[in-house]
Amino acid sequence: SLEVLPSKLYLNPDFLSKFEGDSFAAAFARIECHYFTNKGFFESEDWILKNVDKIRGIPTVIVQGRYDVVCPCTTAWDLHKAFPEAEFHMIPDAGHSASEPGTRHHLIDATDSFRPSA
After folding, report:
1. Nearest-angstrom CA–CA distance, 11 and 7
2. Per DSSP, what are the bridge partners of residue 89?
3. 3-state DSSP call for residue 21?
């Protein structure tokens, strides 16, 4: 369960209990190692920034937890500077997890905004 500690700003025991057990820890470690070993499947660390023109026409919302230590907020800010058309939300009371209340709220709003109007 140590792997998930940096993902949330406010931990709760129920959340942590989901990550206990050797089988989950092994599966989680395999997935992480697969991505880390393959550099996230990008040609370079700054591939998205170098290729932002390829996605410039796609409606985009960047939602970033202020206290995310897994993906530091400087990376989201650098993307927003290179892609100012993207809507940007820095969530003041969130870490990495999409389940943090403020992050979840903005992700749902973003998803709803992409829904075609009837």
Report:
1. 9
2. 63
3. coil
